TrEMBL record:
<dbReference type="GO" id="GO:0046872">
    <property type="term" value="F:metal ion binding"/>
</dbReference>
<protein>
    <submittedName>
        <fullName>NADH dehydrogenase subunit F</fullName>
    </submittedName>
</protein>
<dbReference type="InterPro" id="IPR019575">
    <property type="entry name" value="Nuop51_4Fe4S-bd"/>
</dbReference>
<dbReference type="GO" id="GO:0010181">
    <property type="term" value="F:FMN binding"/>
</dbReference>
<dbReference type="GO" id="GO:0051539">
    <property type="term" value="F:4 iron, 4 sulfur cluster binding"/>
</dbReference>
<comment type="similarity">
    <text>Belongs to the complex I 51 kDa subunit family.</text>
</comment>
<keyword id="KW-0479">Metal-binding</keyword>
<keyword id="KW-0004">4Fe-4S</keyword>
<dbReference type="InterPro" id="IPR019554">
    <property type="entry name" value="Soluble_ligand-bd"/>
</dbReference>
<dbReference type="InterPro" id="IPR037225">
    <property type="entry name" value="Nuo51_FMN-bd_sf"/>
</dbReference>
<dbReference type="InterPro" id="IPR001949">
    <property type="entry name" value="NADH-UbQ_OxRdtase_51kDa_CS"/>
</dbReference>
<dbReference type="GO" id="GO:0008137">
    <property type="term" value="F:NADH dehydrogenase (ubiquinone) activity"/>
</dbReference>
<keyword id="KW-0408">Iron</keyword>
<dbReference type="InterPro" id="IPR011538">
    <property type="entry name" value="Nuo51_FMN-bd"/>
</dbReference>
<keyword id="KW-0411">Iron-sulfur</keyword>
<feature type="region of interest" description="Disordered">
    <location>
        <begin position="181"/>
        <end position="204"/>
    </location>
</feature>
<dbReference type="InterPro" id="IPR037207">
    <property type="entry name" value="Nuop51_4Fe4S-bd_sf"/>
</dbReference>
Length: 427
């Protein structure tokens, strides 16, 4: 398959504007400026581009939520606050194709008639963020950014906002608060950012991978984009694969590629051929587990949902039969407990309590009552918390209680981790 999103990643100097333009970079601007913004939105909607940041919501539909008569100023936020454990696809775009990000922001901002755009970069990606700032300056010098772009009468200024840290900054309303200089707590669901976002103005937030698709859709058409996918998927997808595989990494493949092909072909299979697959998280750390019987599920939003999980960021974390699922879930829950913004009690106090119980089970100090308590706590935390952070945080734990129940029981009955023996055998 021809690389689309990653076609610039092999350049020796990805910041070099001339090199980027020599391979077709920024060509979509002329196409965009010759069209009405509504036509661009129609094309993106017809392509069935769905959000690559986790939710999978229709990009075109999200753009329409702003409303055609939205008051000025209007804002676009490109979300590059990639902090989900097991997810590292956006980093490839930041370090390997900064001008592709800038081009996509320009085209998308024109479609939304957003006069100002922010690229919100994860704090740990500061080096890439500074390179992106340099690329923006180069684009401005070349007349690709600024006033009256392409003679269209459209003005655009792009700022890079380097995050101060914390996973919660990836939630769009917390991100908006962070850009405004406030504590990054999530805002109430109503009013929506599409009408009352940055400084109370219409604001659209999209993941960077989502936006980088837009220039290609504009240049090649909606039907072309839909045909790139397989098994009902549309477009290509950047899949991250990590864990117990021979070749972890980022792979650009058709959306809808089965998990079996991702793991055993592109990632080279399990890192020890004598081991067997225990399970995998299909969409990053905040998604429910899938099991070996799900290997032929197409990695696309709806098929993964039908299998009982979420595609999320498309980041597969692989467990083999030497990996303790309880320790895996404990490690993830520790992360989420640390990253809670602390705004609401179920999340702030509930997640550390889960860590305490899981740690007792993992270290041989658990009891049978702990399983019922974990189930009850997860239900309370998921339904009573203020935003979507906590429901996502407990998803791996909830699914592990169902899919790996016997492993929990073995830890409690034997008062030790039964995987210790299998690890020694593997060595």
């Amino acid at each position: 398959m021809e690389a689309i999103l990653t076609r610039h990643l092999d350049q020796d100097n990805p910041q070099n504007l001339a090199a980027y333009q020599a391979t077709g970079g920024y060509r979509s601007l002329n196409t965009a400026f010759d069209l009405k913004p509504e036509k661009i939105i129609e094309t993106v909607e017809a392509a069935n581009l769905r959000g690559r940041g986790g939710a999978g919501f229709s990009c075109g539909m999200k753009w329409r939520l702003r409303g055609a008569d939205a008051p000025s100023p209007r804002y676009l936020v490109c979300n590059l606050d990639e902090s989900e454990p097991g997810t590292f696809k956006d980093r490839y775009l930041l370090y390997g194709a900064p001008h592709a990000i800038i081009e996509s922001v320009i085209v998308s901002a024109f479609a939304l008639q957003a006069e100002r755009a922010f690229i919100f970069v994860r704090g740990e990606y500061a080096k890439g963020g500074h390179r992106l700032i340099q690329a923006i300056r180069e684009a401005e010098t070349a007349g690709l950014l600024g006033r009256n772009l392409g003679g269209s009468g459209f003005d655009l200024h792009i700022d890079v906002h380097l995050s101060g840290g914390r996973y919660i900054c990836g939630e769009e309303t917390a991100q908006i608060n962070a850009i405004e200089g406030k504590r990054p707590n999530p805002r109430p669901k109503i009013p929506r950012p599409s009408t009352h976002g940055l400084w109370g103005q219409p604001t659209t937030t999209n993941n960077v991978e989502t936006l980088v698709n837009v220039p290609h859709i504009l240049m090649n058409g909606a039907e072309w984009f839909r045909r790139l996918g397989i098994n009902g998927g549309c477009g290509t997808k950047l899949f991250c694969i990590s864990g117990k595989v021979k070749h972890p990494g980022v792979f650009e493949l058709p959306c809808g590629t089965p998990a079996r092909e991702l793991i055993y072909k592109h990632a080279g299979g399990l890192d020890n051929d004598e081991r067997t697959l225990l399970g995998f998280l299909p969409g990053g750390a905040s998604t429910p587990f899938l099991l070996p019987q799900h290997l032929d599920v197409p990695m696309d939003f709806d098929p993964v949902a039908e299998a009982g999980s979420r595609l999320g960021t498309g980041s597969l974390i692989i467990l083999d039969d030497t990996t303790c699922p309880i320790e895996t879930v404990l490690n993830l829950t520790r992360f989420f407990a640390r990253e809670s913004c602390g705004f609401c009690t179920p999340c702030r106090d509930g997640l550390p309590y889960l860590v305490q119980i899981l740690n007792a089970i993992a270290t041989g100090n658990g009891s049978a009552d702990d399983l019922a308590l974990l189930d009850e706590l997860c239900s309370t935390i998921a339904t009573q918390s203020f935003c979507a952070f906590a429901p996502g945080a407990v998803m791996p734990l909830v699914s592990s209680l169902k899919d790996f129940h016997e492993h929990y029981e073995q830890h409690i009955i034997t008062q030790r981790c039964p995987f210790d023996a299998s690890r020694k055998e593997a060595v």
